[in-house]
Amino acid sequence: MPKTNALPLIEPPATAAVAPCCPPLTERPFTADEAETAARMFKALGDPVRLRLFSAVASHEGGEACVCDISDVGVSQPTVSHHLKKLKEAGLLTSERRGTWVYYRVEPSVLAAMGRLLTIAPAAA
User: For residues 112 and 92, what is the distance between their CA atoms, to the nearest angstrom?
Assistant: First the structure.
């Protein structure tokens, strides 16, 4: 019987917290860079299919979803892949390949940053 050594488990890289892209809309006017970042996020979510995919990932049990579980959004699989790529490019999703499947997740800090952007800034004391 051949002697085999177990391979060590590789831990996924620790993801750094995503810093809020921008201050609340009511706090002060955006800089050009802040406006670009916020526009990229909103543009990605401006498509109904992308919004459905983002929602499916964000609401999926465990905070992540296999592409095989969220592909039923009324478009072909290549189109689903295209939309998921756009969401990743906008910084809204992260992904990890496991075997033949890709798992997507929304980092809680991204949701927090988006929520902060749309809140009313506290009044100056």
Answer: 11
pTM passes above 0.85: no
The answer to whether the beta carbons of residues 112 and 20 sit under 8 Å apart is yes
Neighbours of 62 (CB within 10 A): 7
How many C-beta atoms lie closer than 10 Å to residue 18's C-beta?
Answer: 16
Q: Which residues contact 109 (CB under 8 A, 6 or more apart)?
A: 17, 18, 19
Nearest to 54 by CA among 18, 90, 26: 90
Q: 77 Cβ partners below 8 Å, 6+ apart? A: 71
Residue 65: phi, psi to the nearest 5?
Answer: -140, 140
Task: Give mean pLDDT, residues 75-100.
Answer: 92
